[in-house]
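Re: the 75-residue chain
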Amino acid sequence: MLTQLFERAALRAGWRAARAGTPFHENPFTRGALARFARQWGCGWAAANDCPLSLYSWERFGGMTPAECVREAEW
């Protein structure tokens, strides 16, 4: 699923960049839709999903239920 989302975003961004006349040698991650997509995922899974927890939180709260994790993270 995530691979499909990334592939779609990359295809759309590449197509838009080509239509806008972006040089072929330019890194597509420097500007435009693909850059925004990369920055969002660069923040980590929690930031990309607007979740108050990070990967570290999930590792730290190992056996807890999701509701308990959220309650603990809010403190």
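The chain has five helices and no strands.
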